[in-house]
Amino acid sequence: MNPPGSLRVLEEKEKEHLATPIVGPSIHSDNPQERIQARRLRIAARLEARRRETLGEHLDGKESEEDQSKSYKQKEESRLKLAKLLLCGTELVTNIQVAADIREVHRRAEEEEIKRQRLEKLENEVKTSQDKFDEIAMKWEEGKQKRIPQELWEMLNAQQVHCAGLVEDKNKLISELQQELETKHDQYVKDLKKQSGDICLLLERMEEQVKNVMKTFRQELQYIEKAFEVERQELLTNNKKKWEQALQAHSAKELEYLMNRIKKVEDHEKQLNKQRIWDCEEYNTIKIKLEQDVQILEQQLQQMKATYQLNQEKLEYSFQVLKKRDEESTVIKSQQKRKINCLHDVLNNLRSKYNKQVKQFQEENQSLTSDYKRLVMQFKEMQKAMRHFALIDDKQFREIWLMNEEEAKDLISRAFDVDRVIHTHHLGLPWTAPDFWFLKNVGPISQQQRKSATQILEEVLMEAEEEGAEEAASEPGSYLDLPKQVSAKTTRKILMLLCDESGFLIESKLLSLLLPLDKNECYLLKLDAIFSALGIENEDDLYKLVNFFLKYQAHHSPPSQERTSLVSPLEKLDLQGEKEGSLVDREPQEKQPPPSPRLIHPNDVLKILEAFVTGLRKPRDFRAPVKLLKVVRDDSKDSEYWKALTTVIPATTLNLWDALYTALEKYHLVLTQRAKLLLESRSLEWQDTELRQLLQQYLDAKINSELQAPPTQVFRVPTK
Amino acid sequence: MEETQITPSLSVPSWSSASTQDQSSTAGQASSTGPQPSKSSVIPPPVKSKGPSPGAGVRRMRRIIAEDAEWSVATVPLLTELCIQHIVKNFQNNPILKQLLPEHQKKVLNQLSPDLPLAVTANLIEDENYWRRCCTQRWPVCHVDEHGGSWKRMFFELHLENLLKHFIPSTTDPEVILSLLPLCRNYVHTIRVDQFLPPVQLPPPLRGGDQSDSSSEGEMEEPATGHYQLGDLVAGLSHLEELDLVYGVKDCGMNFEWNLFLFTYRDCHSLAATVKACHTLKIFRLTRSKVDDDKARILVFSLLDHAALEELDLSHNLIGDRGARAAAKLLGHSRLRVLNLANNQVRAPGAQSLAHALAHNSNLVSLNLRLNCIEDEGGQVLAHALQTNKCLTTLHLGGNELSEPTATLLSQVLSINTTLTSINLSCNHIGLDGGKQLLEGMSDNKTLLEFDLRLSGIAQESEYLIGQALCANREAARQRALSPSHFMSPATAKGPENLAG
């Protein structure tokens, strides 16, 4: 541990390398205050230099630096100064610790060295003493062998001396060590003192440092405050100057404004005067004019007064008149009142009458409505009757038609017979019966009666029923005039499907009623209900529906192929109910036509129906008038028909017949002549015979026999 | 109302003006004069004030008379005042505080005596003023800043410290301390004890070292029991963050004995267990306690993976390389930020293990190896470690017999590292060349703020230049702190640098 002197030396060294030669208070002086002063000056100078440099650097570049001005500079300066001071101060204070550290380090090094030496010494000592001890121990052995007491004594003495020497050595060592210890003790005490001295110094320095720091802080604060003050003063003066300048400018302007204002005021006064004079003149002229006006008006007033009096008199007169009139009007008023009363009475009467009449009319109305109802009923009855009559008429017409037709056909057949006879017998020609359409016709001609949907249904179903029986002799197209592409079977399937799927269209009541019925009837009724719901009324609609189904299925067929497997078992089930017998035969047949309606998936039915119904709506609208027309029978073809009947025999044949007739007539004539001739000849023959007989008789009479001649030669000549 | 003091000998007029509010001075005065006037706070009972007047002849007696003309006996204080008086008087038996209005609470607290038993006041009174009075009454110097700015905390910490300091094992009843536990558990954050009295056979050998003439020099017995076991106490303190212990005796004077300064294995084990159990502990200091390698290892192993520990201070002990190795292991297994091993016996191997730990550590901020003997070997290894470390800011290697090779390596570190702000290499043998090299390293560094090279054999010129560079760095750091956007910093930083160059 160093004495304080050495510490100071250290410290000074420390300072020296920081120091730059400065005149004035020396850092090397003994007075701490002076030293501090010196250091501070040095720092200030250094800072000043630095500041100058930075200022010089930034002078041209940054004007803002200047703007920040004195206070900022002062602050920066003080800050740097204080930082330096603090740094130096702490360095100063910690110097003691560092010095102590290095002393400790040195001490340790020395201690280690001494320790090492001591250990060495001790080891040497141990060795030597051990040798000595060994020697002594050896001698003990020797002594034991000695028999002569003198020798032994001597040897013992020698041993004693040796031992004493050994002990002495040890003692010496001990005393040496103890001495060392004592010196160490002293050293320790010294160290302690030094350390306490160090601590004292440390405290002193710390206090000094604190004082210094406080002092400098205060000073710097003052400086800063001063700087601020100065800056403030400058600012104030600057602002004052500015303020004064502004004030001056302001007053000058004010003056200018004042002058302007005065000028303006003068101008205005002049103008005012002018205006006044002008106004006065105008006033005078107007006054004169107005006075004239007043005179005129007074004259007018006089006139008006005169007229007024006149008018007054007139008015008085008219007042009188009015009074009289008033009296009259009061009289009239009373009269009118009376009249009004009368009229009120009348009105009341009329009202009562009106009410009565309303009642009456209501009654009438009621009666009339009842009449109307009755009439409607009657009308309906009439219609019914009419329908009945129509039916009857139809029937009658049909019967008459049939009758006539029969008659005609008889006649025709006769004609044909005749014709045939003529041809075969008379002309020798082969005869072929003419084949006309009307010949086969039976009953009145009509356009094919439209069948209602239900009828067709019935038919279809019936067909199906029958089908089971007459499967082998099936004539698929014959029984119905369905569109060609649609077979009855498919139709039927579609209908069944429809029936099964659209059960919701049927009323529940109906369903309950249907339960006990036969299957076919059940279907029939169900379909009927469904069609009525869908608005399907006749054949065409039905076919449309069926076609629609088929088309739809055709459009959607590719995916439906997959469905076949799904659907077919369902259909099988459907089918089973009706065709138990023929099921086995039918299966393969039915599977072959690929676009079978059976492939329609039940789930699609509703979609199809929906599409169909929306499609059907449109043509529906113009159906009504057509229906009316249908009632009137179409008799255009009748006359044609009948005419055709008349011309069953063509004109050529007729001509032929005419020719034949004439020929035959001629022939007849010839024949009749012949007949006559025959008759003549016969009579002649008879005469002949008679004559013969007579002759015979005569002959017989013997006279004749000689007169005999052949008569044929006599008679044959005239027949030719 | 005014109190005047009629003391013929001491005519202190200024004292009379120092009115009744100056509690501490009246209290201080009261101890000398007697208990009577100390009770007289705001409204002194008139009878008492008049009582002493006939006995004015007695020296150092205070007499209080009414000088105010308007004052009369008839003036009756307000009922609230009387109530408050009563509450204050009987506070020990019936503490009523929380039920009062705030202004009344204030009055009561102002008038309460600081001598009230802690059992009453500890958990009831939060008022800082009261605890301030308590502290200033008991201790002449109070640094409230060292106790988190809270007077109450300071009072309890100092009180506990006092008890611990004067606790004599197997003589003092441990209940004395444990009974305080429920009172102070919420307020004590720090325990600083710089003396643990050893158990003694002679009953009053060292009562705080006051008795100087007890002759116990020749007894050199091993202590049967250790020092006070902190375990129970520390377990009870829920907010304990700092533990600062010195196993030693202060002011022993000529009664010095080596066994006064024994930190036994028993102590060590119990302390280790205590520290391990205390999960809130952040700072642990055990200095000047003759902790050797084995004890250090015991302590360090108990601290491994401690969740909260941030600072470990084992300075001024006898820790060698093995202890240093243990500390290095701790660096890898904790979140230690500060490690202080100053004035120990760490040599190169210990420094090597520390350097190894340091190279991969990202928590440690400060490392102090002052007054060890790591020498160049250790110094070089540490310098290597610093090339990879990105966390350490403070490094103290003063008095470590370092020389030029370390300086060369450190100068390389200086040019690379950007985290170090303070290095201390004082009291080494760095030499002139080493100084130059360090100066070179410094010229590339922009972060170092402190670099202590005193008494290390460096040329003054280089030391001065290093100082200039440090100044520039400090200036830059200040600019950075002022404006985070680095706007002005380069311009201002250049100025001083140019000066230095």
UniProtKB/TrEMBL annotation, chain A:
GO terms for cellular component: axonemal dynein complex; cytosol; extracellular region; sperm flagellum. Residues 16-35, 54-74, 578-598 are annotated as: Disordered. Residues 98-199 form the Dynein regulatory complex protein 1/2 N-terminal domain. One of its GO terms (biological process) is mucociliary clearance. Keywords: Cell projection, Cilium, Coiled coil, Flagellum. The keyword Repeat does not apply. Residues 578-590 have a biased composition (Basic and acidic residues). The keyword Coiled coil applies. It is found in: Cytoplasm, Cytoskeleton, Flagellum axoneme. InterPro entries: DRC1/2_N, DRC1/DRC2, DRC1_C. Residues 102-139, 255-314, 344-378 form a coiled coil. Residues 640-699 form the Dynein regulatory complex protein 1 C-terminal domain. Pfam families: NYD-SP28, NYD-SP28_assoc. Belongs to the DRC1 family. Component of the nexin-dynein regulatory complex (N-DRC). Interacts with CCDC65/DRC2, DRC3, GAS8/DRC4 and TCTE1/DRC5. PANTHER family: DYNEIN REGULATORY COMPLEX PROTEIN 1 (PTHR21625:SF1), NYD-SP28 PROTEIN (PTHR21625). Component of the nexin-dynein regulatory complex (N-DRC) a key regulator of ciliary/flagellar motility which maintains the alignment and integrity of the distal axoneme and regulates microtubule sliding in motile axonemes. Plays a critical role in the assembly of N-DRC and also stabilizes the assembly of multiple inner dynein arms and radial spokes. Coassembles with CCDC65/DRC2 to form a central scaffold needed for assembly of the N-DRC and its attachment to the outer doublet microtubules. This is Dynein regulatory complex protein 1. The lineage of its organism: Eukaryota, Metazoa, Chordata, Craniata, Vertebrata.
Automatic annotation (TrEMBL), chain B:
Its main location: cytoplasm. Belongs to the DRC5 family. The keyword Repeat applies. The keyword Cytoplasm applies. The gene is TCTE1. Component of the nexin-dynein regulatory complex (N-DRC). Interacts with DRC1. Interacts with FBXL13/DRC6, DRC3 and DRC7. This is Dynein regulatory complex subunit 5. SMART domains: LRR_RI (SM00368).
